[in-house]
Known about the structure:
Layout: H1 2-30, H2 32-44, H3 69-86, H4 91-108, H5 111-127, H6 133-145, H7 149-159, H8 164-176, H9 180-193, H10 197-210, H11 213-225, H12 232-247, H13 252-265, H14 270-283, H15 286-300, H16 308-321, H17 325-344, H18 351-361, H19 364-377, H20 384-396, H21 400-412, H22 418-430, H23 434-447, H24 453-458
Helix pairs in contact: 3-4, 4-5, 4-6, 5-6, 6-7, 6-8, 7-8, 8-9, 8-10, 9-10, 10-11, 10-12, 11-12, 12-13, 12-14, 13-14, 14-15, 14-16, 15-16, 16-17, 17-18, 18-19, 18-20, 19-20, 20-21, 21-22, 22-23
Amino acid sequence: MKTKIGQIKKTDIFWLWLLIVVPVFGIAVVNLPPNLRLISAIFAEKSPAGLDANYRYHFSEVLRNNPSQKEALQQEIAFYQQRLAVDAKSGLNRAALAGVYLKMGRVTGEGSWFLLAQQAANRSIADLPFDNKGALLVLARIAEARHDFPTALRLAKQVGFDNEDAIALAVTSHLAAGKVSEASAAAEALVNKLPNLGSLTLRALVREAQGRDAGVLQDYQQAMALEEPGEVAGSARVRSLLGRFYVRRGQLQQAKALFLESLRLVPRYPLALIYLADLEVRSGNYREAERYYSKVSAYSGGAATVFDRTVDRGMARVKELRGDAIESRRLRDKAEAGLRQEQASGGFGHRRDLAGLLLEKGRSQDVAEALALMQQEVKIRRDALTLDTLAWALASAGEWEKADRVMAEILRSGIRDAGIFYRASAIARNLGKDAESRAYSQKAKEIDPSFDVRSGQALGLGNNDF
């Protein structure tokens, strides 16, 4: 009898579950989109745990039901295309369209958008050859992306350095060319003219190149204090760049929180995903690193982007560190083929990226080609990272004295980068300068106490033992 009663109770419970839970589940399914929006809104209000209060985004309400960057830009494109359908000769509308194409290229990383931006800007100037600052600025940004800094500066000068965007171009072009003093003067002028999120972020980048850490943090904090609700993409970018700065100082927990905050603002933001993946590689969390790298590729929906080679190289390092030499080699070969294709087509592939990849492969013929590539690259770009890659190539080729002179040029700028000091230490050691080598190694530890040779290998900086 007890068994039957027990069975009846179980049966009653089962039917009760069907009568109550299933209808509730059905209601939830019918109302799935609103519920998802509610859940999204709840999570949108929460910053990552451990994030410094100064770096939290305080306009969480704008994240609710906020269209993605791509959707918002597609709406802008449609708006200007409709205007041009009415007046195809409107140079101003076509310049505005070129600007939106450029923004789309930056968001997606797809080269086709940059080409559309260039074509639209050129046609805009043909229709409106005078006082067409918008089109000139688009062409200047594209020239800068191609590392044609003289053209970028010439076009910015045509716009006039009373224009904030032209001054910003001067900052980034001078910084890439290794002219840190000129970049600093332009950044100061820009901040004095218009202190906002964008200008303060640029000055922070210049100060980082000068090794002025206190000024870097001051600028980033002030930039975030001045941010406005309508500039979510800029807010995500500034946190990604600050996170990268913290990584370079060995403060990985704060860096990770900043990257996650960037992704809260702009889900699947490529810059934050790549930096986060790199951080996980350095931390030895290889599965997490692969997951973040994969998200970058998934975001493009199969379209070729400027991020593809970075992802391939990052994944190759992960496979190598996990002991999968065959897959690592395949991914590096894939990245090399893509970079060579971009070089041949005059696209946005970088010689520096190809040289770094070849140095990672390490064969004698690869080292020789990498050195030739970097000797060409430094004729147009002499920022610290480019010179560091040249020093790597020279050291790998056994040209220690030349590598040492290049490192000295980098360090004169004042930059504080543990990886650079570790390379300087290795080069000095190979030249028999033991005291200098120890001093460089100690400096690296002061900058980033957690950095070591393995960290450099994990981040693709090569083996500083050479």
